[in-house]
Amino acid sequence: MQKDSYTSSRVCYIFEAAFEYFISILISGAYLAKLTSYLGFSDGLTAILSSFVALGCSFQLLTLFFFRGGRVKRRVTLLHILNQLFFMMIYLVPFVPGGMGFRAGLLIFFLMGGYFISNIINSPKIIWYMSMVEDGKRGIFTCIKEMISLIGGMIFNLAMGAMIDHFEAIGQIRTSFILAAVTIFVLTVAHTLTLILAKEKEPIEQPKQNSVVQRFRNVITDSVIMKVIATSVFWTISNHMVVSFFGTYQVKELGFSMKFVAFLSILYAVARIPASFVLARYADRHSFAKMLKFAYGLAALGFLVAAFTVPANGTLFFPLYHILNAAAMGGINSAETNLILDYAPPEKRSDALAVKQTIYGLCGFLSTLAITPLFEYIQRNGGIFGIPLYAQQALSVLALICTLLLILYLDKVVLKMKKEEN
pTM here? Predict the structure, then answer.
């Protein structure tokens, strides 16, 4: 009976994730690149802005201060409304009078502010919703949730891409920015309803004597949890050193239209949906750690393909990269969170997720920041070591090497740890 009483709340979670995903589409990748290109931002600055999604994760440590126990629904709902209104405002920046420096600062403020708030509430929200899912069904539930988001996102991306292309073709791209802002507002209203209608289980209270510092110490001194967190850290370094630069690569060097970018999102969904299902079933039957090894292998193959992607073959090779990346992310996204749920005791899960996302975010952002000078050097010189190539090709090679090292770590450390516990 208890499981049935939370059925509607699980449905709310599925739609909550979908609406949040639709908003994330409009504030990242080629959409963000289109906005920043209009404002005159450099590719390097756009890549750094794209990596704010990672830097925003670093603020999840503040969860320990804002969520010290008790019910989280009301706080999560109110803060989510605020963060999504911040995201809406980035599309209104082009209408603000002032120079590029002022507009850049304003866009950074709204984008960073939105990610700041979003990440403070992310861990308690995940624990709130996932507490209503049985442990043996977490993999398949996560898969279904992602499938709904991807199918909806595919249609949404196609519609928004066509809209932007239309207004750009008739010289009215500013109109598309207004419509994008209105769309985010409507999605915010729908998203808020899913939070309001969802139930909340009685939370597991932290012991009264545990201060924020003690809770943080309890996580970072737990060697098992930290080994799991290291997996996510190695991945975000590998991923963000190149993916943050793919937004501008698509619309500039490869010359893709927004319709083709939307087509890539369809291809992404078509590849990720079956991969998510297969990998989720495998994880539920075996382990999320074993599933991750295979998913990281697919990601490595994707980086290998990206390393050979140039304008001459871009319409073939970049979609192939997209397919491999989609299949990989079908396992990576859910597995990295579920590893925490597998290894951390219930009273540490929210804190462990917050610490993981904090380290994950900082390393992801710093990875992009550190690699940007190399990116700009290769872009400026048209190659490196006398080899003519695009900067994104060189960074894809580095990402490939790092991902292969991550697979080795997973095999020698995390999977070994799992075998010892069994």
Answer: 0.68
